[in-house]
Amino acid sequence: MPTSRTLSASAISFAVLSIGHTLGGIQWTNDPAHALITGTKPWSCGIVGWYQGSAFFLMTSLIHYQWSRNPRALQDPTNKAIALITNGLLWASSAWYFRTGIVENGWMVGLSAALQAWAVVQNMV
What is the model's pTM? Predict the structure, then answer.
């Protein structure tokens, strides 16, 4: 069975997002304003949530890599649902970043959403 280059590209984009997201978290938590809430519930939730996001991107990269090796897996309703939920989450996150003025994150997540949608739709048929 041939591999899917578009799904491979999407897998790579998610791996890059994971690394960038982790590095962004390091930068974000070093902001002096962040030190003001250290030890609070919002601080704890923010930190763990941020790194959960990085893990989400890494997991998504692995799923797309698996799909790239077996594009027929996208015929399965569960895999279709995973792809749809992932894409919706990416578009919503991109819109949130743009709405709150974090433009570079908005662009990166939005581009990954577009690539993921294109790759998945191309391989669902």
Answer: 0.88
